[in-house]
Amino acid sequence: MPDELVPLPPFDDTADVVVVGTGAAGSAAAISAHDAGARVVVLEKTSADQSGGNTRVSGGAWFDNRDPEQAAVYLRNLCGDRPVPEAIVRTWAEQTQHVSAWIEGLGAAVAPNGKFPPEYPELDGSDCYGGYLCVDGVLGEGRLHETLTDAVRRRGIEVRYRAPAVELIQDPNTGAVVGVVAGGEQPRRISARRGVVLATGGFEADPEMVRTYLGLADPPVWGSLAGTGDGHRMAMKAGADLWHMDNMMAVNGLAPPGSRQGFFAMPLHSNGYLWVAPDGKRFVNETPPTGHGQALVHGRYELFPRAPMHVVFDERTRLAGPISPGAELFPVGWKLVVEGYRWSEDNSAEVAAGWLHRADTLAELAVALDVPADKLTATVEQYNAACAAGRDDAFGRPAATLAPVDQPPYYAYSSKPLLAWTNGGPRRDEHSRVLDPYGAVIPGLYAAGAVSSTYSWCKDGGFHIADAIVFGRIAGEHAAGRAG
Question: CB atoms < 10 A from the CB of 87, how many?
Answer without folding.
Answer: 11
